[in-house]
Fold this sequence. Notes:
Elements: H1 3-26, H2 31-45, H3 54-69, H4 74-82, H5 84-109, H6 118-125, H7 130-139, H8 144-168, H9 191-210, H10 216-230, H11 240-255, H12 260-263, H13 267-295, H14 299-306, H15 311-321, H16 325-350
Amino acid sequence: MPFHFYLRVAGTLLISLAAALLCVWLHTPLPWMIGPLLATGLVSVLGWPTLSWNPLRNAGQCTIGTALGLYFTPQVTALVISLWWAIGLSILWALLIGLLSGLWLHRLHAKRIPGLHRATTYFSGAIGGAAEMTQLAEREQAQTDLVASAHTMRLLIVTVLIPFAMQFSGVHGDALSSAELMDPSVKSVSLTGLLMLGLAAALGAWSMERMGRANPWFIGSLLVSMGLTMTGIELSAIPCYLSNAAQLVIGVSLGVRFSPAFVHTAPRWLLSAAAGAMVMIGLSGLFAWVLAWAAGLNVATLVLATAPGGVAEMSITAKVLQLGAPVVTAFQVCRLVLVMVLAEPIYRRYFKR
């Protein structure tokens, strides 16, 4: 690759590191992810030639997936399995509010945007990964720029707003009972074990990517780490500096999406996407409160578990704030997979005419 490519990557990382250290000094929530996200997004909008290098982003997702998998001890796994009914309800809820969001977007913009395709509004409202929903929308001849921009706006709002709300509301620590320990299975770092764990996680991620699965570097490493932890194999903990670096490159990968062209993409569309994201957060918060009462779990944990954000971002929030990371991860991963599988069949059954 040309020298200026690496220069752009290095410049972006330096800006992100400075923003992360500033957020650490200011005691903001998730400083190593939110700082780089906001700083990179701001300079990207202003025209700075920022760049996210995919191998770094993949390594970051792999690191976070591996770290989260260490929480799934047999005891915690049994707890998560016992919540199958709550996970099922959260998936149905996600499909419902995603469907309603798509209908609202279509009603609002059908007359304002010439040739607006029903698939564009449907996949823009669906609560799924931005890349996956954009890919599905493209297969249905939708306007993919609008789909991608709607998901990017939603992800930004959820990733920034919810951690700040959690911190300023005084929520911290894990409110689950002591019998349902939510600590990683291994606490100490072993260089040899860390190397073996990293290689195993990378192999799992690579295999998922070869099979064409959604979010392979996060899901593949998570499944490998979970499998090892469930069977009692304890290799190493993930060092704090690796976790921070992973959050930083994930924040960068989100921030670079906010190019000058993004801001000029149908301003009314972006405004309605932002408003829709706020409504989704509010409705999901009410749903989480009801579900927490029924399941006997901490409300804050289920707010993160049902939030209309990305699986990695919400799981990181739960991990840093110690709010039932395995429960949040299980809810978010199951929703990601099922929405990915069901979104297109639902569209073809009810909307494709």
